[in-house]
Amino acid sequence: MVLVVDDDGEHRLLLSRLLRKSGFRVSLAQDGAGLMKLLACNHPDLLLLDVMLPDEDGLALCRRIRETSEIPVIMLTALGKGAYKVAGLEMGADDYVAKPFDPDELLARIRAVLRRTRGHAGRPVGIQARRGYRFDGWSVDASKRQVLSPDQVLITLTSAEFDLLVAFVEHPQTVLTREHLVELSRGRGSDGFDRSVDILVSRLRRKIEPNSKEPRIIKTVRSGGYLFAPDVVPLGSA
Most buried of 73, 131, 142, 191 (most Cβ within 10 A)? Predict the structure, then answer.
């Protein structure tokens, strides 16, 4: 089920028709209060969240949801509002689509996020290649999409953060450009918005680095991209 949150009634109707015509079950909310009520009794597969809402804006809502849930979130942002894209990713969104959007692009992005989070065929290159990995005491289970810290604590990652981590552990000690990381973690045809990769790396560092301000696991390579520094041990084929 896709949960659509938009205060514009006509826009909600158009989105509902588009999604239902494409085979999705749809639930609708017009504001943050309606969203939280629906989340209390439903478990949607994906949240399509408008930034501009009458009570609590979509960015704040995304941050609240990320405190307790890994539900995939795609933000709907006004065309040209690059700052909203950046802020949405920093709040934990998995992707963003600018308004007005192309219906086919929106559907493609929804399906791409669902493929990554449900483990369907067609997942970006590398995600299914092996069952698990170890590095610096950390464990990554690609089939269960779980990450354990060296203290055996289950770490919560969004789908975008997890896919980025898998892209890194699949290519350790290799300089990966931003464009390459987008291709590896999201698939061909994804928006190569440079800041999105930097923001995701920053989010991931805060969760796996001993000191995110002085990273030693994911290193920045000037004019190159990023390098995953530790040795990685594959744990067997899927």
Answer: 73
Between the two ends of the chain, the Cα-to-Cα distance in Å is 28
What's 134's DSSP letter? Answer: E
Q: Which of 91, 103, 9 is CA-nearest to residue 57?
A: 91
Please tell me whether residue 195 adopts helix, strand or coil conformation.
helix
Grouping H, G, I as helix, E, B as strand and the rest as coil, residue 197 is: helix
Residue ranges covered by each domain of the chain: 2-118, 132-234
**Continuous segment of H or E residues that includes residue 9:** helix 9-21
Q: The tokens of 191 are what?
A: 């928006």
Q: Is pTM beyond 0.70 here?
A: no
CATH code: domain 132-234 is: 1.10.10.10
Share the mean pLDDT of the chain: 85
CATH topology of domain 2-118: Rossmann fold (3.40.50)
Q: Are 182 and 192 in contact (CB under 8 A)?
A: yes
Cα 28 from chain centre: 22
What residues of the chain score a pLDDT lower than 50?
Answer: 119-130, 188-189, 192, 237-238
